[in-house]
């Protein structure tokens, strides 16, 4: 069953001589409980794709359906609600509030969500039960990113969108973060799309989607997905 589906997704920035076709007719379906990774050179359209699917940006043409709803027909107000209720975001930088503990950073989200887990549950899922009362400055980059992931999943989003979550981490720490995402995908069944350059991801994702010049050049299905412990 599809969670979202794009058809002919096209995004053009600028106009005339400075026109950039960031996306040029992209058709992608993300299924329930699926974990996909988006790979491709810098500038190939991956972030633009993720931002549109997450309701942070709108396409020039083409459509996005989220379940049976057409996202591309939503008003600003509906998009705001879609982002709040249905989507979790993780970015390269963690954007934690420095004056709040890990637990309090996650609680900011759980206090306003409709059907949240507790901050304790969310932090346990990323293996940070022993860091709940630490402040961001007392944690490593990988731990801070895992707090950011706990914050993103605490509202039980249907879709988790991660734009270079390992971009600021060394590769070993990056692997721990990707494994946390895979474990969440297994345990909660959250459909997950990840942009990363970390090669390990190809073993833990169900599908790898390659972008080149705003188009999809290849889709590889991973039959032997390694299940993280
Ligand atoms: P990727 O994530 O694969 O690196 P992006 O989606 O960030 O690719 O960018 C795709 C293309 O769109 C690039 O040529 C980039 O320079 C351009 N682009 C992205 N965002 C903007 C913007 N806000 N204004 C103008 N051009 C943009
Ligand atoms: P409004 O409540 O403004 O009349 P809608 O009923 O179309 O507009 O939906 C508003 C919001 O409710 C959407 O932005 C979406 O986040 C959410 N929503 C509720 N049910 C669904 C569903 N089955 N599929 C997708 N989104 C839904």
UniProtKB/TrEMBL annotation:
The keyword ATP-binding applies. It comes from the Bacteria. Keywords: ATP-binding, Nucleotide-binding, Transport. Gene3D superfamilies: P-loop containing nucleotide triphosphate hydrolases. The keyword Transport applies. Residues 4-229 form the ABC transporter domain. Pfam families: ABC_tran (PF00005). InterPro entries: AAA+_ATPase, ABC_transporter-like_ATP-bd, ABC_transporter-like_CS, MacB-like_ATP-bd, P-loop_NTPase. GO terms for molecular function: ATP binding. Belongs to the ABC transporter superfamily. PANTHER family: ABC TRANSPORTER ATP-BINDING PROTEIN MG467-RELATED (PTHR42798:SF2), LIPOPROTEIN-RELEASING SYSTEM ATP-BINDING PROTEIN LOLD (PTHR42798). This is ABC transporter ATP-binding protein. It comes from Hoeflea poritis.
